[in-house]
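hey can u run this one w/ zinc ion bound, need the structure tokens asap thx
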Amino acid sequence: MKDVYILAIESSCDETSMAIVKNGKEVISLVINTQMDIHALYGGVVPELASRMHTEAITLVLEETLKKASMKIEEIDAIAVSYAPGLTGSLIVGIEAAKTLALIYDKPLIAVNHLIGHIYANNIENDMKFPLLALIVSGGHTELVIMEDDYKFKKLGETLDDAIGEAYDKVARVIGLKYPGGPNVERLALEGNHSYNLPRPVMDDSYNFSYSGLKSAIINLTHNAKQKGEEINKADLARSFQDVAIDELVRKVDKAFRETNIKRLVVAGGVSANKYLKEQMDIVCQKYDAELLVPRLLYCTDNAAMIGAAAYPLYLQKSFSDFKLNAYSHADIC
Ligand code: KG4
Ligand code: ZN
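ok here u go:
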């Protein structure tokens, strides 16, 4: 079969990224232009600024991606773009770029769900075998799904309120760490002990998650200490939070292994960059003699290579999009 080269575009949040991916697996080139330092000045992503910066960066990122691959757009077989979920103003920049390239160079356009992209990041350096459990842990989502085949999903549960990444970012802010909070909380937690008694989410025996109670407890604890003039041990608080937050994931994954008999787990989304999470997932996978896949660090957080990987099965099915393609802030994967 002829090799398939997909030019993929990702601009759902604060990274402008493009990649050329061969046959859904081989990353020929990948460019990620992050706006993180600018948003850090404001303590979080400012949507209006994000869209403007995507607009400024996108043609430069395209040039660099083609240059790194030593390829011309004429040699590309399809243009893929993430269309949801994310910041609509940011997504639109990528979508318009994709439509323009598809129109001018007469290439098929492939619309990719950003979360499905995170799952397919696991297919870049490994082969996902089905059925599998996929744990999605990002800044906006916390979900556990069964994947029966390419693009065949069945949701087990999701967060009823905040996403785990959102909780990490909020905790970071409250204890005075820079955005993005996740990696900074993880670093500080390494220096601390689990000395704070934080509430565990309600044990309702479902597959759903909840992080707002944990987040609020940390906000209240910090405010109360401030009012009383007491010192908070930030490292201990980070460690206590991380233990409870990750344990919640472990409990649900354990239940899913027990109840479904599935023997594979893939972890997807920015929080999969967390080492403690990986260690804990490794332990639960060993318990059930299951295989664990976590993307390489570069592919854990937002990047266009994962969009190229997720676009490949759609290319094979000829699931192409028309030029009415729009951006959506929310979109379920099933
Ligand atoms: O998937 P992602 O890059 O963007 C979204 O699609 O949301 O995920 C970003 C989230 C942020 O909340 C960030 O704090 C979190 O992933 N994150 C981490 C780590 N690295 C990134 N959370 C915990 N530990 C990390 N090492
Ligand atoms: Zn993401």
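The chain has a mean pLDDT of 97. anyway lmk if its weird
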